[in-house]
Amino acid sequence: MTDFSFKPDGEILKNFMKSDDFFRGLRGPVGSGKSVACCVEIFRRALAQEKGKDGIRKSRWAVIRNTNPQLRTTTIKTWIDWFPEQDFGPFAWSVPYTHRIRKGEIDLEVIFLALDRPEDVKKLLSLELTGVWVNEARELPKSIIDACTMRVGRFPSMRDGGATWYGVICDTNAPEEDHWWPVMAGDVPVPDHISRDEALMLVKPENWSFYTQPSGMKEIIKEKQLEGYEANEKAENKKNLTKDYYNNIIKGKTKGWIDVYVMNKLGSLEEGKPVYSGFKEELHIAKEPIPTAELPVYIGIDFGLTPAAVFGQRLPMGNWQIIHELVCFDMGITRFSELLRGEIAKKFKGLEMDIWGDPAGDFRSQTDERTPFQILRQNGIIAKPAPSNDVSLRIEAVETAVNRLVDGQVGFIVDSSCINLKKGFNGGYHYRRIQTTGDRFDDKPYKNRYSHVHDALQYLMMGAGEGKNLIAGKGQQRTYTAKKGWEVFGNKPKKSTWDFLRKIG
After folding, report:
1. Which tens digits make up the pLDDT trace of 60-69?
2. Are residues 325 and 452 in the same domain?
3. Which of 155, 158, 146, 151 is nearest to 60 (CA)?
4. With CB atoms counted within 10 Å of each terminal CB, which end of the chain scores lower, N or C?
5. pTM of the prediction?
């Protein structure tokens, strides 16, 4: 059987399948033919495998998905649609799921693995394979991809002629911006917070290639406002979709969902109601890098093991520009304070600073007699507790700025490099739904990876005075003042807490 034919509908799909690179990644919207192309690619490579001494073209592939339900209902379903049992032989529905295709000179074994079971991970690490297909790669860490690269090219054995081609193919919907995929593809820069060794692991090898398909639809923008969507004539796999496929699937969906699954934009999806309903990415995220003005820099800090700092400036007309973020994971305040000091020196040298932190940081922990504010001070950073820790006031302080207009323009803009803030604004920072039906949500934002950086933004805005009127309306609040000033690099006390960073260096 050598007459199998498939014609990919789209230039990106064609280029993906033509390539002989060791690693190939295909990113596209839902319905773009990614999974089908990978299924066909496995069989096409089986047809192209050189015959062994016995005249048989032998190959063995593993197909990877992150969970068993997704593997059975999505990945295997697509495979069986193209290679039905009645035509290509019985499918073994016991774990590990296996399809052995013996037709004519073809002997192809395809093993399907879900990596939510420890035994399946062990199975992967012991397999001798020709190739691996990773379905929906955004759901898996790069360590799994690296493990896959070590198992391919091992079947057939060299004494049987070896693999004519071997490697790893992946497909995915758009992942998050800090995922390994867009970093290696060159779509986003390497995150600042990762180590040099980690950064080296994200350098794209010469024999790796990434392919990005066109979006399923185009945005209709009028006066900088998103008005709707229309068909994209450049979309791929249209011959295999109904005319109104994308028009129908976007109905009732959030912009975040549409961005990821239809527009093929990097982003994340969170279940719940966004905290800031007035935030619009097309309005509030800067199209170009925001230059730092010769004005004071306000910094908000959230403590804990996911510490975060947000840097902003208030312009003379009262509008805000948020110019930088520092977000770390699994890190204590001592190490974070060192990183923060470095960021200040590198990016904001010579500018005045006004730094505000979580008021809870004014209390000692059970394991350290020093408070986070004291630890910051020992690294030359004077931070003051924010005027209030009332969540509703903090949110309103940010929301007031987000909804502000200055001379007919938005009064709050965020630099595109602030990836975690942006994800939070787009739904990552949200109120969690408290029942499966209806629209009931928690009254406080859900604590997750995006809540910390948004807490830091709130402390910034509260400390900078955006919450002054709100606090006045709530009656007398407890006030906090730094006990003493300090120069960042001189370790010398100063009289003014405002001037402690006036002249860095």
Report:
1. 999 999 999 9
2. yes
3. 155
4. C
5. 0.69
